[in-house]
Structure formats: structure tokens, C-alpha cells
User: Which sequence fits this backbone?
């Protein structure tokens, strides 16, 4: 049954946004944004279009009773949204941030109470899964309060809900996102990749026909730089039955690098300068500086003619004017810190430096060690050089769509465009597709996708963002002290479409009844040629990345008639990509089928 | 509206009571002696004539008795109803007079004597809430309470930019403001005959009767919507900004 509302939730690393369309509304059925009630300071609840993805663990007796009451929740022990973000700078031990990045972090048990990361024991800890669920639950209540006004027929959980995920999310992280939604009381959600959602937002523009702006064989780079993450995707325009046809042909890695890093770097650069001049700032003033530096950055990027912008740090304590520190940010300094620091000119053959180290390393989010967004971009494009979709042609984007709040600055857009043009051998056209509000486009586009699924718009052909492999041990004589080498068997080809199912033919597995079975699991974003059943001998050299294992257990009482414990049952592997955008692996015997679960506990 | 209805009802009831009193007086002063005279005269007639006239006289006598009995009852009932109707009218009369401003909203002109305490309390809570928001978002109290005489203009200017921006944001978040008159300042305007004295301040040569014609000097301000949140239940009422203490930062 078609629901009245289609709701798109952009569950962001630093901000969430919710867009929706009311199909009962007459006229063009325009897409609206939900203004989300949230605590902005103790006792003040405001409705804002963005919900910062932060959550604060309130300490008992720390605030007057009722300070964090919401229309739907009395005396909560946690605060979600704007005030939680503000508290993050004051009491970092009690604030949970970037829970989405934790959700995709394969080295951590994502169901264990890890967050707030590194906080003392007395702070209540929750898992990355719980943290994401908490954000979604806040959104669900906000909707039910604001739009549904308590009418159960209009509740969010009774509508069609789309949740966006980074394109770089692997099958496990996608599955966990669905679980988080379920935990938040939203039993049915459909997943959509963020860069695709941003692209849908571009398509859905009332003022022009998108078909007029792109042509066959265009390769569109979606460059999505959010507050905390950077995500690249490539979309190919082709023709089918006389109509333009869109296909998402490549996704990049999950790069933990975004606008917040840039603002922080800028603030530290100014602090360093002030400190050289003899003015020391404490953490309280640093907060003021961060705010002021961001404003100066935006003002200078908006007006490149202007040579400098004042940066003011108000005095602390009660001496506001007396303690005010003023300095200024110049275009020169801004260019050095942001443009050259984060968008350095580089060659197409350049690589991000200091690739993540393996081995002994403190657990914690794997922040990108190279801040050069453009070097990450060069690496992304060069890795997709040989993709079959491009028929061997070099990857040269012919159009670019920017997304994320950072890219509002035209100076940054120009820099990226110039660099990509410089990589092309000849005079190369690179068209910038201008989109609507870069902060809200993802939520907006996800609603358009919801409409497209009902047949009211074009859909991008996408499918799985990686090819997936399970590890099989080679049959060879045992060598003491040496584990048998593992080969990787392709079980899911790249781009396997949603709603499709295949069987891994010609290979049977012996599943021992009553014993847990675990397979090593791998993924690759660059191997587009591998077909189901292909075997990769040297997986590390082939560019595969190991993911947490997949596992299952076949209880004796479910195995069927006359099967005893310890007896192997012959099964085949079936794979399907669900309609909602998750991956499911099944072992199928004559009598039954068992799901292979993604292990998120024992990395 | 309700008051008008009550007044009409009261009029009807008073009219009824006057009629009742009139009936009683007329009966006892005029009808009584007349009937008595007729009865006495009838006694002097012959038997046949008396028999003929007596039933009519008896009927007349019955009417007289009924009038004597029911008129006071009706009068007292009407008096009681009138008293009941009068009570709310007296209550209303004690309330302040109302005026209409140009937005057509009815508002109080003078605070009611019995409510002064409650109004002050509400005004205090609202003021503290607003101050608390302006301090929290824009540090307005810090600014107003600071002695800024000794600082150079540039330094004050730098600070004020931020205070101006943040206090403005906070104000607009909770209070919606609009000019009283929407014409541009400097334009000729007409002050209507029935103008609201709170909404217009007349200057210059104010003679004769309104409507007045003049030049708009200041558009005025009015609040079209006020949306201050209630104080949290556990909040100590007169705290505007809490003292901030950094734990574990004393260097010891």
C-alpha cells in the first residue's frame, strides 16, 4: 500500500535533516523540510531544519529539573541535537559524536558500549548502533509530534521512510543502519547512497530539464564533502531505448575528513599566530575563536575581493569588551590554510600520504592522515581507470556535482574544477552542475527517489557498491606453523541490482550441524569485472579489503529429519540484494535455509 | 456580546416586575372598593336580579383575589431574577474599560486591582526568561553591566558586532516584531478619527479633531508574536546565567 508521506532522512555524520512530501497535497506535491524540535540551551526547545548528530549523556543533578524536557519526553537522561553539540566543546567526555562513522568502522564491535569514546567509566556508555538509533528515535518522535500531532495513521513508522548512507558503507554498515532504524521503532526503511541522493536533488529542479544539461557518455563526479566525511561517486550517462540512462559506476572509500577539520585547522592556525604575538587562549576562548573563524572564512569565501575579515574573541568572564581579542583573517592566510592545506594542487598520479597503518594502533576512528581532499580524489579516479563501464577509457569526469556545506564556497569549487581540468591531457570540458542548498540536498533528493520508486521520476541504476568475497582455504598438505593460504571466492559481483537473487552454482559447502561456521569476508570497490564464482588467489595484492567475518550456526533441531549433531549437511550459497538495499547471504539445503549473519562483534 | 444579552433580559424582567406592582396597586386601590360597592349594591336588589348578577360578581371577586395574590408573587420572582442578572453586570462594570488598537485586538488598558500580584509575577518571569536568553546567546548582561568608558571605540565596535548579531538572532527567534505603521518613514500618513492612543504619539501642532494628517517620523514597533518558553520546573526563578566552573582545571 502506498503511504501518504514519503520521508527522507539524511542521517549525517555531523547533522541530520528530514525532508518529506505529502502525496495528498494537491498541486506539484512539493518537498518540504521538517523543522526538528531540539534543546538548544537548558529550558529552550527550538525547531530547526538541521539536527546536529550529537548526543550528550546528562549527569545527575547537573541541571535543574525539566531543563531538557521535550514535548514527547520528560526528564531525559540524554540530550540530542544543538545543545549536545555545544556541550561537546565544554564537556567532551559526555558527548557522543560521529556515531555514523563508528557504525562503519570494521575494527570495532559496533554493538558494544564504546561511546563516548575514551570517557571515564562512570559515564553511561552506549554502542555505535544505539547512538544511531537514538538520533533516529529523536527524529521519529519529532515527526510524530510536529506532523502527525499524535495521529497514529500519520506516524513516521507508518510511512515510507528512506535513510541515506555514505556510498562507501559496506554491507555490514548498511545492515546496521537498518537495525538502528528498527531499534528506533522504524520497522521498514529503504537505504539510498548519499551522493546518489544529492544527484536526485539536482535532477529534481523545476526550473530546467536535467536532460538538457548532460549528454550521453558524460561521466559525472559527485563530490560530497560533509562536516566529517568526504565521499566520491561516479555516475555515467548512457542511452537506452532513446532515453537517457544513469548508472552509478563507482564509489570511493569512507574518508573521515570534512568541513569540521577545516574550521578547526583554521582556528588552530589563528591561535598559533596569536600565541606567537604573546596572546594565549584557553579552551573557553578557543570555542569563541572557532565560531568567529568560521564566520570569517565564509565571509571571505563569499567575497574574494575583500582582503581581510575581523576575527573577534569576546572576553571571558564578565569582562566582555575589556577582554576582547581582535585579530583578522586575510585572504592570504585563508588560502594557505584551507585551499593549499585541504585542496592542494596535485598531479593525477599523486596519492594520499601516510596510508593507514596496520598493526598496533590505538583503537579509535581512523581519521584520514592526509588532509588533501584533492589527493584522495586523484587516488579515487586513478583506481577506477580500468573499469569495464568506461571501456578502458581514462576516468575524466565531464561534469561535477558538489554537495555538502563546505562546498558552498565557490572558491573551493573553482579549485577542485581547475585541478581536475589540469589532470586531463587535452583541453577538457568540466561542467559544474549547480544544485540546490548543499546542506539539505541529500534529504531532499532521497524524497525524490521515493517518488521515483513510485514511477514518478528517473532512477539511477546502481546495485551493490562493492564486489564481495568469502575466504576459502586451499586444500594443501598441512605445513606446521603456517596457516593454509586463503583464496577469495567472489559471491557478489559489483553492481548487483536491488531485488535480484543468484545462486552460486557448482560449489557446495558442508555445513556441520550444531557447530558455528565462520567465513572470512572481503570487499573491493575497484574490481568491477569479477563475476560470481571467480576465485582470487592473492587477495591482498588484488586490492581486496578484509571485512568482519560472516557466520551462521545450524541448530540440530532445525536441520531436518534424521540429521544428527556433528553431521555435515550439503548446502549451496544463495545471494540476494534486498529491495531495501541490504545484502543477504543464505545457505540452502534441500530442507531449509539459514542466513549468514555479518559479524559486528568480533572484529 | 454576552453583556448586551444580559441587559435586554434585565430590562424585560424589570418591566414585568413594574407591571406586577402596578397590577397589585390598581387592584387593591381601585378594583377592591369598586367590587365591594357592587356587592353592597347587589344586596339591595330583588332575589331574581341578585341571582342573575351574583355569578358575575363572584367571578369578578375571584379575579380580584387572584390579582391580589399573584401580583406580589410575580413581583418578588422578577425582583430575584433581576438581582441575579445584575450581579455579573456589576462584576463587569468593576473590570477595566477596554480600548481597541488598530490591529483590532481587544486589550487591557488598566490592570485589574485584584490581579496586580499575578501580573507582576508573570512579568517578572517573562523578563528573567528573556534576559537569560539574551545573556546566553549574546552576552547582553555582561555587556550592559561592564564599564566600557576606558576602551577605544575599535575594541568596543569589535565586541558589539558579535553582541548585535547574536542578541538580534535570539530576539527574532522568540519574539516577532513588526512596525505599527508599515509606510516608509518620511511619508505622509493619516491618523484615523478613532485612533488608539497607545499606537500613535502626535507631535507638532496638534489642534482640532482627528483624523489628523502628518508626516511619519517613526514607524513604531509592536510585538506580533511572543514565544518565550516556560522556565524549567527545577530552575531557581531569579538565576539568569549560572556561574561557570571548570572542573579539574585549577592547575593543582
Assistant:
Amino acid at each position: 500500500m502506498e503511504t501518504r508521506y514519503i520521508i527522507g532522512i539524511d542521517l549525517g555524520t555531523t547533522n541530520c535533516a528530514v525532508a518529506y512530501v505529502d502525496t495528498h497535497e494537491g498541486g506539484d506535491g512539493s518537498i518540504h523540510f521538517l523543522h526538528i524540535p531540539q534543546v538548544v540551551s537548558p529550558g529552550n526547545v527550538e525547531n530547526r531544519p538541521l539536527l546536529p548528530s550529537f548526543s550528550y549523556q546528562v549527569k545527575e543533578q547537573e541541571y535543574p529539573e525539566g531543563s531538557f524536557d521535550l514535548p514527547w519526553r520528560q526528564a531525559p537522561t540524554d540530550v540530542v541535537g544543538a545543545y549536545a553539540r555545544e556541550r561537546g566543546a565544554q564537556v567532551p567526555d559526555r558527548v557522543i559524536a560521529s556515531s555514523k562513522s563508528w557504525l562503519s568502522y570494521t575494527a570495532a564491535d559496533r554493538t558494544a558500549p564504546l561511546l563516548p569514546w575514551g570517557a571515564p567509566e562512570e559515564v553511561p556508555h552506549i554502542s555505535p548502533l544505539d547512538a544511531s538509533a537514538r538520533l533516529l528515535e529523536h527524529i521519529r518522535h519529532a515527526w510524530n509530534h510536529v506532523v502527525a500531532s499524535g495521529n497514529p495513521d500519520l506516524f513516521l513508522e507508518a510511512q515510507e521512510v528512506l535513510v541515506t548512507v555514505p556510498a562507501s558503507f559496506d554491507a555490514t554498515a548498511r545492515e546496521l543502519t537498518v537495525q538502528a532504524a528498527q531499534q528506533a521503532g522504524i520497522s521498514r526503511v529503504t537505504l539510498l547512497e548519499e551522493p546518489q541522493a544529492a544527484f536526485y536533488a539536482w535532477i529534481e529542479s523545476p526550473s530546467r530539464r536535467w536532460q538538457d544539461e548532460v549528454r550521453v557518455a558524460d561521466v559525472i563526479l559527485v563530490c560530497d564533502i560533509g562536516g566529517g566525511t568526504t565521499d566520491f561517486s561516479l555516475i555515467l550517462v548512457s542511452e537506452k531505448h532513446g532515453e537517457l540512462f544513469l548508472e552509478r559506476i563507482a564509489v570511493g572509500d569512507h574518508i573521515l575528513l570534512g568541513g569540521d577539520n577545516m574550521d578547526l585547522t583554521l582556528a588552530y592556525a589563528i591561535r598559533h599566530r596569536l600565541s606567537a604575538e604573546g596572546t594565549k587562549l584557553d579552551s573557553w576562548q578557543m570555542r569563541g575563536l572557532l565560531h568567529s573563524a568560521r564566520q570569517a572564512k565564509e565571509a571571505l569565501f563569499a567575497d574574494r575581493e575583500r582582503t581581510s575579515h575581523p576575527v573577534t574573541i569576546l572576553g571571558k568572564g564578565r569582562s566582555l569588551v575589556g577582554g576582547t581579542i581582535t585579530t583578522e583573517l586575510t585572504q592570504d592566510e585563508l588560502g594557505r590554510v584551507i585551499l593549499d592545506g585541504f585542496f592542494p594542487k596535485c598531479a593525477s598520479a599523486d596519492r594520499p600520504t601516510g596510508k593507514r597503518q596496520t598493526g598496533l594502533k590505538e583503537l579509535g576512528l581512523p581519521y584520514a592522515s592526509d588532509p588533501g581532499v584533492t589527493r584522495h580524489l586523484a587516488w579515487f579516479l586513478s583506481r577506477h581507470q580500468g573499469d569495464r563501464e568506461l571501456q578502458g577509457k581514462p576516468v575524466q569526469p565531464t561534469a561535477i556535482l558538489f554537495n555538502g556545506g563546505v562546498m558552498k564556497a565557490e572558491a573551493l569549487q573553482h579549485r577542485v574544477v581547475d585541478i581536475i581540468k589540469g589532470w586531463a591531457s587535452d583541453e577538457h570540458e568540466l561542467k559544474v552542475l549547480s544544485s540546490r542548498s548543499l546542506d539539505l540536498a541529500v534529504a531532499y533528493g532521497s524524497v525524490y527517489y521515493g517518488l521515483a520508486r513510485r514511477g514518478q521520476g528517473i532512477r539511477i541504476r546502481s546495485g551493490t557498491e562493492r564486489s564481495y568475497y568469502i575466504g576459502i582455504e586451499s586444500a594443501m598438505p598441512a605445513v606446521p606453523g603456517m596457516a593454509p593460504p586463503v583464496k577469495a571466492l567472489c559471491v557478489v559481483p559489483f553492481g548487483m541490482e536491488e531485488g535480484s537473487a543468484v545462486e552460486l552454482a557448482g560449489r557446495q559447502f558442508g555445513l556441520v550441524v550444531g557447530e558455528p561456521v565462520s567465513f572470512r569476508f572481503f570487499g573491493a570497490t575497484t574490481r568491477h569485472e569479477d563475476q560470481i564464482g571467480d576465485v582470487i588467489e592473492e587477495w591482498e595484492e588484488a586490492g581486496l579489503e578484509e571485512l568482519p567475518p560472516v557466520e551462521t550456526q545450524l541448530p540440530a533441531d532445525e536441520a531436518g529429519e534424521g540429521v544428527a549433531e556433528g553431521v555435515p549437511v550439503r548446502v549451496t550459497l544463495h545471494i540476494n540484494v534486498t529491495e531495501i538495499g541490504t545484502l543477504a547471504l543464505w545457505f540452502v539445503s534441500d530442507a531449509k535455509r539459514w542466513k549468514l549473519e555479518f559479524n559486528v562483534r568480533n572484529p | 456580546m454576552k453583556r448586551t444579552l444580559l441587559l435586554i433580559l434585565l430590562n424585560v424582567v424589570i418591566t414585568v416586575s413594574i407591571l406586577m406592582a402596578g397590577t397589585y396597586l390598581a387592584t387593591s386601590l381601585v378594583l377592591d372598593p369598586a367590587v365591594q360597592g357592587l356587592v353592597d349594591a347587589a344586596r339591595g336588589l330583588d332575589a331574581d336580579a341578585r341571582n342573575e348578577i351574583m355569578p358575575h360578581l363572584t367571578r369578578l371577586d375571584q379575579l380580584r383575589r387572584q390579582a391580589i395574590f399573584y401580583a406580589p408573587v410575580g413581583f418578588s420572582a422578577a425582583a430575584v431574577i433581576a438581582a441575579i442578572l445584575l450581579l455579573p453586570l456589576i462584576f463587569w462594570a468593576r473590570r477595566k474599560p477596554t480600548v481597541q488598537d488598530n490591529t483590532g485586538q481587544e486589550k487591557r488598558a488598566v490592570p485589574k486591582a485584584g490581579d496586580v500580584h499575578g501580573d507582576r509575577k508573570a512579568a517578572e518571569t517573562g523578563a528573567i526568561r528573556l534576559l537569560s536568553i539574551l545573556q546566553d546567546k549574546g552576552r547582553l548582561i555582561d555587556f550592559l553591566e561592564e564599564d566600557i568608558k576606558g576602551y577605544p571605540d575599535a575594541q568596543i565596535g569589535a565586541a558589539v558586532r558579535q553582541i548585535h548579531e547574536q542578541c538580534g538572532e535570539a530576539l527574532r527567534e522568540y519574539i516577532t516584531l513588526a512596525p505599527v505603521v508599515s509606510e516608509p518613514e518620511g511619508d505622509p500618513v493619516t491618523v484615523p478619527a478613532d485612533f488608539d492612543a497607545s499606537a500613535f504619539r502626535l507631535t507638532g501642532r496638534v489642534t482640532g479633531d482627528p483624523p489628523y494628517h502628518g508626516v511619519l517620523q517613526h514607524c513604531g514597533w509592536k510585538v506580533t508574536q511572543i514565544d518565550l518558553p516556560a522556565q524549567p520546573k527545577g530552575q531557581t526563578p531569579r538565576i539568569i546565567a549560572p556561574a561557570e566552573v571548570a572542573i579539574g582545571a585549577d592547575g593543582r
Observations:
- Residues 283-302 of chain A form the longest helix (20 residues).
- The radius of gyration of chain A is 25 Å.
